[in-house]
Amino acid sequence: MECNHYIGIMSGTSLDGIDAVLVNFETQKPALVKTFFLPFDETFKSSLLALNHSGDDELNKAALISNQLAQLYAQAVNSLLIDCAIIPQAVIAIGCHGQTVRHCPEIHKRYTVQLVNAALLTELTGITVVTDFRNRDLAAGGQGAPLVPAFHKAMFMAPDHHRVIVNIGGIANLTNLEPDNNAVSGFDCGPGNLLMDAWCLQHIDQPYDNNGQWSSTGQAIPALLERFLSTDFFSCPPPKSTGRDLFNSKWLESYLEGNEAPEDVQATLMQLTVTSIAHSIQEYFPGSTEVYLCGGGAHNLQIIKLLKKVLSDKKISVTDELGVPADWVEAFAFAWLARQAILKLPGNIPSVTGAKGERILGAIYPV
After folding, report:
1. What is the mean pLDDT of residues 24-44?
2. pLDDT score recorded for residue 183
């Protein structure tokens, strides 16, 4: 049987590290063969965070970090190949999203920046690389994100179940899979983990709030939550996408009065994530009966508890139940998107991004 392997690489807004997966497309339904995670060290993470805002010598810094990312991505790929005992020639292509440092789809800006030296990644791995997935959709009038709903449709659509897939990474996004008319819609609904993680690091010197244990010691502040939700993004109808350009520490601090207990702020940030997810589902996908979570937030027991309380009429579970572990959905998606590009098939869904039509996504760097 002809080899039909692809690798997907994702390093997301949470900046925890690199997810790499090997996917076999030989069977009718793609199969996850092996996974590998490479964490970012704190120094590198700080360098990436700094590039989310204008600063001194940023073009030089961005170019150097693009090279570093290529080397780290190659390290993850090569480790994955060793674990699988296969050679680079057995892989058709790598789908590499790159590291987002700016995402400004607003009509007066319309640009997005994902860092990676893809040519170097090709040289270091000996494998064709597909990258720059967002810009073609953006050029066609779309938001350039979210891009995973097309993959969600391919993997999770069911003829007799109305499902919503919720990715809770740094940013949270939704995919609506409505079986009656095979319709797919989706959008970014707000912050996922990024604000909670930043506040956690600042106040208890931990990279994240494990299972929401710290937030559970506080009480959400209704007035603060209301101020958070007054941000125009939440009332803006889809299609829409966002990132650290909007939701960052400066945004958070602008709504604080200064006398809040840190654990209460954490509880309110968690409530913001839950409320923006739940309200979006209730407003735009009221007929859905099943909600499946993926991303790092899918492991947060407090988030799951709160979502079950608000969305009590719906089944709440994780994508593991559908055959794809919650931690690896996005990396899997970029293996799928790489294959779409190689086969010259569209990778976007116009009803999600707002693009003028379907487009083949990605720039290809042949081996």
Report:
1. 94
2. 80
User: Which residues contact residue 37 at a Cβ distance below 8 angstroms, ignoring those fewer than 6 apart?
Assistant: 17, 18, 19, 20, 76, 327
The encoded tokens of residue 123 equal 């040289």
Question: Under a CB-based contact definition with an 8 Å cutoff, are residues 142 and 350 in contact?
Answer: yes
**Alpha-carbon distance 335 to 57, whole Å?**
34
Tokens of 69: 């990312």
Instruction: Give me the sheet containing 31-39, strands edge to edge.
Output: 31-39, 17-24, 5-10, 91-96, 129-131, 363-365
Per-residue pLDDT band at 2 (split at 50, 70, 90): low
63, 116 in Cβ contact below 8 A? Answer: no
Please give the DSSP secondary-structure letter assigned to residue 116: -
Q: Give the integer Cα–Cα distance in Å for 168 and 231.
A: 20
Alpha carbons 225 and 272: distance in angstroms, whole number: 6
Q: Is the pLDDT of residue 182 over 80?
A: no
